[in-house]
Amino acid sequence: MIRENFLSLLDNNPWEKISGKIKNAGLDDVDRVLKKNKLDMDDFAILLSKAAAERISVLKKKAHQLTTQYFGKARFLYAPLYITNRCINSCVYCSFSEKNDIKRKYLNDTEIANDAEYLHNQGFRHILVVSGEDPIIMKSNYLINTIALLHKKFPSISIEVQPLTESLYRKAAAAGCDGLSLYQETYNRDVYKTVHTGGPKRNFKWRINGPERAACAGIKRINFGVLLGLADFRTDIWFAALHAAYIRKNFWRTQIGFSFPRIRPFVGSYHPDVEVKDNDMLHLILALRIMFPQASLVLSTRERPKFRDMLLSVAATNTSAGSKTNPGGYSDNSTTGQFDISDNRSPSEVIEAISAAGLYPVQKDWDIGLTG
């Protein structure tokens, strides 16, 4: 039974109140929090503050210690597989917006199998199935059949698609899906309305309750995040952490993780008002590692190679490699991608960089015999 009371928790923590806590934190507060072993959400607000950025070297050292303690030197690789760029939403920050004149495509089973074979040959055993939001996902077995098809080769499959019903999440889990990435994009309701100008994604409540429906349905891993650049990123990350903490508390079997997508060039004219610099992103990742020592922290190819390598050496644990953001992109580049990537290295080059840093690249950490 879905509780769906995270919205009540959200309402009890007004945006401006949390923003004020973050802005008003001082160095004494930061030093006090860094001495604690168990942190609460008020402590996390302090870790996100500009004052905490003045202690970045201390945060970096502590985050690295915690990453090593809970993950050792292992760094896990995955690849996205886009199955369609058709979408009925009008999101101002995305190439897939229905208002953009791009070449649209659904992959059929043969095309999915071709991209899957390519990724399998590259050594990947964890893939992320991505799609635009289209009614066929909800009204047919397209997604479920895709998961079942891919599960023949990949023991771990995550999805990054539109929010589903609890029933569909159960079917996805039964077909072989064990992970979900569902980003709220922003927890600021006013900004959310502004950037989602049309389509079902405008339904803030339906989207925000998606992780809970997935947890109820037995999805084992849920990844949270915001689109960095839409709103005040410090406050947005605080709410993403609150959301993750809520799921962890109510669904203790569910593992939580975080991703850090920054707005990248795409087909469209939207320019974010909020600039998120590399040092800002580093700060967010370090703060989350200290707050959630056992959480997966995920990097995409949106980020530059050297920056990704540095983050993986300090606190990040999961990364994509050799990514294509258009449907069928591993065998056909004729369709439009969701955004431009920054790290164009091949999977082998990313693996080589991870190894050169004294870390252990892992492409398979699951077994079909164990996951079903």
Brief summary:
The protein is of the alpha/beta class and 372 residues long.
Per-chain topology:
Layout: H1 6-11, H2 15-24, H3 27-34, H4 41-47, H5 50-53, H6 56-71, E1 74-84, E2 90-91, H7 109-121, E3 126-131, H8 135-139, H9 142-150, E4 156-160, H10 166-175, E5 177-181, H11 189-195, E6 196-198, H12 204-208, H13 210-216, E7 221-224, H14 233-250, E8 255-259, H15 278-291, E9 296-299, H16 305-314, E10 318-320, H17 347-356, E11 360-362, H18 368-371
Parallel strand pairs: 1-3, 1-10, 1-11, 3-4, 4-5, 5-7, 7-8, 8-9, 9-10
Antiparallel strand pairs: 2-6
Helix pairs in contact: 2-4, 6-15, 9-10
Please tell me about this protein's structure:
This protein has 372 residues and is α/β, with parallel strands linked by helices. It has one domain: Aldolase class I (TIM Barrel, Alpha-Beta Barrel). 44% of the residues lie in helices and 14% in strands. It has helices at 6-11, 15-24, 27-34, 41-47, 50-53, 56-71, 109-121, 135-139, 142-150, 166-175, 189-195, 204-208, 210-216, 233-250, 278-291, 305-314, 347-356, 368-371; strands spanning 74-84, 90-91, 126-131, 156-160, 177-181, 196-198, 221-224, 255-259, 296-299, 318-320, 360-362. The strands form two sheets. The protein has an eight-stranded parallel barrel with strand order 1-3-4-5-7-8-9-10, surrounded by seven helices. A two-stranded antiparallel ribbon has the order 2-6. The radius of gyration is 20 Å and the shape is globular. The protein starts with 5 loop residues before the first helix and ends with a helix. Mean pLDDT is 92; it is low at 367-372.
